[in-house]
Amino acid sequence: MADYIEGRRPILEAMRSGMPLKYILMADNVKRDGLVADLLRKAKNLDVPVRQISKKKLDEMSERGSHQGFIAESRPFEYVNGTFLLNAAKDYAEAHEGRALIVVCDHLTDAGNLGAVARSAEAVGASGLVIPNKRAARVTPATYKSSAGAIAHIPVAQVANIPSTLERFKEEGFWVAAASEHAADVAWKANLKGKIVLVLGNEAEGVSRLALETSDFSVKLPMEGEVSSLNVAQAGTALMYEWLRQNF
Question: Which of 68, 75, 199, 232 is the most buried (most CB within 10 A)?
């Protein structure tokens, strides 16, 4: 399924964030200004074709009616498989005193949250993300935006089954830690040293039962306020940095 980006600034931001574009469609009646000049210059530098079509055709393509004379189509994101990600993590561990981190997103549904998780994962040196190939958010323009382009610099593996993937990681010497507000252990009292797989759950229901049962242990963040939990990306960021702190 094609992902379209509408509007001058969103397209310009997409190119600045590193999102690969197939082409840009420009209405034949667009008035040139500084923003249009920036967009066309950026497209030329990145070898993104710009094609002129009628405004009527753009209106028919537009889903939101806010194309401002421009619609772009992004290239499909290049996912990796679980084996590639596993090997990358093992290679990282060999080069970094035995530490490595893989972040598993157990059926996140918001592409923006996926991007925010990817941004933090890339920042701490995680070897990659794992997402399900069905009933879950995938990498979209919203992911590039919320990740500030980090999604282009971290491998993402799509897998058919999260629990079986966790079992495979365990067989290769990784410890699996599930993030759960019902966990007995606070994150900084748990052992997150070495090769860790961190499982982050769905925005509404958390980590699935089967993924929890497959995990070696679960961890939580202490909550002193009235709110019982954090956004998955916020919680994931805190837990990823706790892994980094313990291994630094």
Answer: 199
Q: Specify the pTM.
A: 0.86
Q: How far apart are CA 41 and CA 79, in angstroms?
A: 29
What CATH number labels 82-247? 3.40.1280.10
Weakest-pLDDT range from 110-119, 134-143, 190-199: 134-143
- pLDDT score for 228: 65
pLDDT at 39 over 80: yes
Q: Give the H or E element holding residue 104.
A: strand 100-105
Residues forming CATH 3.40.1280.10 domain(s) in the chain:
82-247
Nearest-angstrom CA–CA distance, 129 and 121: 8
Rounded CA gap, 101 and 104, in Å?
10
State how far the Cα of 128 lies from the Cα of 47, in Å rounded to an integer: 28
Residue showing tokens 């916020």: 234
CATH match for 4-74 among 3.90.1150.10, 3.30.1330.30, 3.40.50.620, 1.20.1250.20: 3.30.1330.30
Q: Kindly tell me the sign of the dihedral angle through the C-alpha atoms of 213, 90, 117, 108.
A: negative
Average pLDDT score, the chain: 92
